[in-house]
Amino acid sequence: MTQQSISFKQNLKGYRASILTPYSYMKQPILISVCIGVIALCLSMASAQDWREVSDGTFTVFTAAQADDEHLSEIFKILREAKLELRRTWGLAIPKDIQIYVHPNIESYSEATGLPWYVAAIANREDLRIDMQRAKVLLERQSLEKTLRHELFHLAQEDGLERWQAEGWAMIFAGEQPLVKALDGVSGEELNQMLEGFVDREGLARANATAFVWMQRELSTQVEPTEP
């Protein structure tokens, strides 16, 4: 394993994965009277992590927290099984040299991606990269496998899919189930805009649920995915 420091600002139009509850990051009270200098120092440290690198030739996983190192074998197992399933069942090829960054804390994750705490991960197809929150946190929420499968699907998906189609397919491949009601009375264009530029956790959750329901509907009628 080698060490390196990076500072990366993710493309916010990337593909986001499952939505987290406040459980993992809202246990501690917020201290209002914090010195501005201390905040600046913490942000600086978050943007320059000491990353450890492990690769199997296709996937390279970067970690910065020892607790996440303990889950590397599980992470690679999920990735390899998903890769095999994508090729054999879905006819989709996984690109080589995929990088997965497992961020050690929410500050590092938000600094790298610009995303809030309730978005578990994001895939950047152009850079063949996945940024995700701590493996330990995702395991606590029983979402590590679903998150990795969801984002890996986005890196392998065929070109030309509408955003809602891509999200619906990714949720199906990941084995996810919506926890909220789908939206009513929205068009495909409106749903695509919601998925790309969500404003809150509930809005993103309902947009994802809608994409899932629409894609399930398409599968039930056994036609090519189109706007309902």
How would you summarize this macromolecular structure in one to three sentences?
This protein is α/β, with parallel strands linked by helices and 228 residues long. The protein has helices spanning 36-46, 66-69, 72-88, 106-113, 135-140, 144-156, 163-174, 188-196, 201-221, and strands at residues 3-4, 15-16, 51-55, 59-63, 98-102, 121-124, 129-132. Helix 3 crosses helix 6, helix 6 (144-156) packs across helix 7 and helix 7 (163-174) crosses helix 9 (201-221).
Describe the structure.
There is one protein chain. This protein is of the alpha/beta class and 228 residues long. It has two domains: 140 residues, Glutaredoxin (3-Layer(aba) Sandwich), CATH 3.40.30; 69 residues, no CATH class. 44% of the residues lie in helices and 12% in strands. The protein has a seven-stranded mixed sheet with strand order 1-3-4-5-7-6-2, with helices on both faces. It is globular, with a radius of gyration of 18 Å.
Q: Under the CATH scheme, which class of the largest domain? A: Alpha Beta
Inertia-based shape: globular
CATH architecture descriptor name of the largest domain: 3-Layer(aba) Sandwich
Determine the CATH topology of the largest domain.
Glutaredoxin
Please bin the fraction of helical residues.
40-55%
Descriptive keywords:
228 residues; alpha/beta; Glutaredoxin; seven-stranded mixed β-sheet; 9 helices; 44% helix; globular
